[in-house]
Amino acid sequence: MSESLAATIAATAESFRSEAKSAQRTFVSASRLGDGFRSAVSIRDHALTVDEPHGIGGSDAGPTPVELVLAALGTCQEITYRAFATALGIPLDSVAVTVEGDIDFRGFFAIDETIRPGFQRLRVQVALGSTASQADVDRLVAVVNGHCPVLDMLSTPVPTTIDVRRV
Amino acid sequence: MSESLAATIAATAESFRSEAKSAQRTFVSASRLGDGFRSAVSIRDHALTVDEPHGIGGSDAGPTPVELVLAALGTCQEITYRAFATALGIPLDSVAVTVEGDIDFRGFFAIDETIRPGFQRLRVQVALGSTASQADVDRLVAVVNGHCPVLDMLSTPVPTTIDVRRV
What we know:
2 copies of one chain form a homodimer.
Chain A: H1 2-18, E1 24-33, E2 39-43, E3 46-50, H2 65-88, E4 94-104, E5 121-129, H3 134-147, H4 149-155, E6 160-166
Antiparallel strand pairs in A: 1-2, 2-3, 4-5
């Protein structure tokens, strides 16, 4: 599979190199709030349920939005490791990631406007199984952290427009 | 339910106001890459599958990490609308959100290092059903956009430490 994945990655990169337009993609998520804090999400043909825990008014039918951000960062790291390890020919036997994020809810609850509502800090722990030399692993880590899309979005502001309409 | 949710929100805010320590929470996501780009995620007792689509080497067993970011933003907007509408006593019959994000994959594929690997821009469309006055809706929109945790994380960099260890 690794050889075929390497060929797929090389072919994809070549198509983006030769036709820049094909590299430009728009992703979409659509969701609708149901009872309480429970939301039903559609992403292409995938469905997700997002909710808040019991105790703060939710029914705990799924992860919270901020937990989805942690999952997005962890899995993006993993996929980026697989992609670059394959492309660079660096052996990668396993990759597992734990992401922790700290929130002070006095920000969200508008108790203290100097406290941000989002994560104050993130800690990412990456466990790599690889027979590669330490130099190759170091090279892999650097290229992954320089190209991980979700890490980029949490490190550099993303221009966002919000349009609200009444229905 | 709305009255009981209002009471829950008021009680939660009061507990955070009187005991700041209780407002400080750490969230965790743990994931492990399986075959190809497929990753199994655990968030408390919730499980998610993340993957890449067919065609770029995935098996499309779930949404991609960048799509999770869109879902996180959309559902965070919705939940924040519910919370503040309830707390402020502003009627809210429905809220549905579509989030679009543009990526130029020449960034991720390291074809052009001037192109960021993450979303270049996000477009959020919020559809609100409410019998409230336009002034109250405007007030709600402002307080939501000022306190939505995921919007904050995508607008203001989150300090992140990444620790890589070999296993």
